[in-house]
Input
Amino acid sequence: MKFVRAGIAVLAAGVLAGAMGGQKMNTPQTTIWRFNDIYSIGGHATHVLGRPHLIDSPYGKAIAFNGVDDALFVDVHPLAGASQYTWEVIFRPDADGAAEQRFFHLAEVDPATGQDTGNRMLFEIRIREGQWCLDSFAQSGGSTRTLLNCNHLYPLGKWYRVTAVYDGKMLRNYVGGEMQGEGELHLTPQGPGHSSIGTRINRQYYFKGAVFEARFTPRALQPDQFLKMPPEKHGSANQD
Output
């Protein structure tokens, strides 16, 4: 039985597990990072900047960032090697943050130099009229795409699921089940690298709010397959 299980795991995850640095896989093609430990995310040790701290969310523990100097860094790019992807985050943007904030950044690193190559994926927000809108960005080589639509504004201080989907041709982003934008993109798979949560990799544009969970899938999911908002443990407003 031991060898049967091992064979199934290799067939299902094979190259993907190697490309993603051996990080914990919650299904053969999905990685989930729960933000319930300041010092370990997705089984990986974090580098802590400032004083991000645990809070009680409606769904369980989450990590809050002050928008000034709080951040976490992880030495893994969870979508390295993916030619398609779905990247989902359950988070809460709070009031009184900066007008531009980067709350999740995945960056490729040049193995020869140890420096960022510029190939990256980001989740960002913009604050407009006391509300927020989603900004998603991806770059690989000379191909880039920004998706920003501030015609769709959402209240601050509530929990949301945001999603970026790349199907090999088009990048789309969503708040809950509502698509915010789409655009053509020719994205070659990115190599291994690192991630930052609460700020851009270069420690600029800090995020004020909290993060509960992220899910990384190396294929394009349809909206009805997106991560579901978990059941609330106590009453609080949320969006899905």
Q: What stands out?
A: The first strand starts at residue 31 and ends at 34. The helical segments are 2-19. Residues 2-222 form a domain with the Jelly Rolls fold (CATH 2.60.120.200). The CA atoms of residues 47 and 216 lie 21 Å apart.
